[in-house]
């Protein structure tokens, strides 16, 4: 009797355990994937809701206007009448326009002169600030400040006043026996006042250079000193190769920014002339603005904008191609 009762209890135990586990664990194995799917859909929906402001902004404020300008680049459009399709006429008119050719030359002059000078000054100051001296925090902030305020309209107005006739720069020239006359009124010198304004704003690349210099191991300099290497040799063989990725990054950013200069050139151009006397500061974007808003040739301006985009893209591609020859990375890739 006792043995049969024990056997009966043992046989019934698995059944009760299955029922018990089923009651406590909730849905069966077939219901678990469905619950996970519902939870995944809710999480995806929440992610899309958080992402939706960026998507709407991209479509309405970036992608949409870009596609519209691409269409307008092949039309005759003046902001008031219906766009009229003219094909490649805007581009052919552009290449035959002497003022457009002048804007290209001025822009290239600004990029070729301003960008290297700005990077050289930024690197030089970064090398000085990389040394352990008192007051480094103050000097870093002081040198970085122009990058924060240099692009403002007020600074461009002050800069214009400094280089005007009988102003500070003009009087300083007279002290050194140089010919009197402000740079602003001199078509040959006005572009250099614009170059100096952008060079003065060297704080941003300086900070990036300084961060790169901090990553160079001191052991390399110590070993070079033991071998008898001088200051210039240590800079050329150690510092430059080690910070070459940072140099490439700064070169890329500053080149792109130089092609897009507008505000400071427009202010230095003076009232009533957005491009300065004798088109002395006729940078590309300034002429684009002049054609699009002053002359109402929005189709022509759109064609100019797309040509600028293609040019900047090609310059960027060339810089990325060239980095294989002079940029050194830690893993040894060039």
From TrEMBL:
Domain of life: Bacteria
Positions of transmembrane segments: 45-74, 108-129, 141-159, 191-213, 234-253, 298-321
Listed name of the protein: Sugar ABC transporter permease
All residue ranges annotated as the ABC transmembrane type-1 domain in the record: 104-319
Xref: CDD domains: TM_PBP2 (cd06261)
One example of a Gene Ontology biological process annotation: transmembrane transport
Cellular localisation: Cell membrane
UniProt record similarity statement: Belongs to the binding-protein-dependent transport system permease family.
InterPro entries xrefs: ABC_transporter_permease, MetI-like, MetI-like_sf
One GO CC term on file: plasma membrane
Keywords: Cell membrane, Membrane, Transmembrane, Transmembrane helix, Transport
Organism for this UniProt entry: Streptomyces beijiangensis
Gene3D superfamilies referenced in this protein's UniProt entry, alphabetically: MetI-like
Bilayer topology: Multi-pass membrane protein
SUPFAM superfamilies referenced in this protein's UniProt entry, alphabetically: MalF N-terminal region-like, MetI-like
PROSITE patterns named among the record's database cross-references: ABC_TM1
């Amino acid at each position: 009797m006792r043995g049969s009762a024990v056997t009966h209890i043992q046989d019934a135990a698995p059944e009760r355990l299955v029922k018990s586990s089923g009651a406590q664990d909730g849905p069966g194995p077939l219901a678990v994937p469905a619950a996970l799917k519902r939870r995944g859909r809710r999480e995806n929906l929440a992610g899309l809701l958080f992402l939706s402001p960026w998507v709407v902004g991209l479509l309405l404020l970036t992608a949409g206007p870009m596609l519209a300008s691409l269409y307008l680049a092949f039309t005759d459009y003046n902001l008031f009448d219906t766009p009229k399709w003219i094909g490649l006429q805007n581009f052919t008119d552009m290449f035959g326009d002497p003022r457009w050719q002048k804007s290209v030359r001025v822009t290239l002059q600004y990029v070729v002169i301003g960008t290297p000078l700005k990077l050289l000054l930024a690197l030089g100051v970064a090398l000085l600030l990389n040394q352990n001296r008192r007051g480094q925090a103050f000097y870093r902030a002081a040198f970085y400040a122009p990058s924060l305020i240099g692009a403002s309209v007020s600074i461009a107005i002050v800069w214009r006043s400094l280089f005007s006739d009988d102003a500070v720069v003009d009087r300083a020239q007279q002290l050194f026996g140089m010919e009197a006359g402000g740079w602003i009124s001199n078509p040959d010198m006005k572009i250099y006042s614009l170059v100096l304004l952008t060079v003065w704003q060297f704080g941003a690349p300086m900070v990036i250079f300084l961060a790169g210099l901090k990553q160079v191991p001191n052991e390399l300099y110590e070993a070079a000193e033991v071998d008898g290497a001088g200051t210039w040799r240590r800079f050329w063989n150690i510092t430059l190769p080690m910070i070459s990725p940072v140099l490439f990054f700064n070169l890329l950013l500053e080149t792109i920014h130089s092609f897009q200069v507008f505000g400071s050139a427009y202010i230095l151009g003076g009232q009533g002339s957005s491009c300065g006397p004798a088109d002395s500061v006729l940078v590309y974007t300034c002429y684009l603005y002049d054609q699009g808003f002053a002359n109402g040739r929005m189709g022509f301006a759109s064609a100019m904008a797309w040509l600028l985009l293609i040019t900047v893209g090609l310059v960027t591609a060339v810089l990325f191609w060239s980095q294989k020859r002079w940029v050194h990375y830690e893993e040894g890739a060039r």
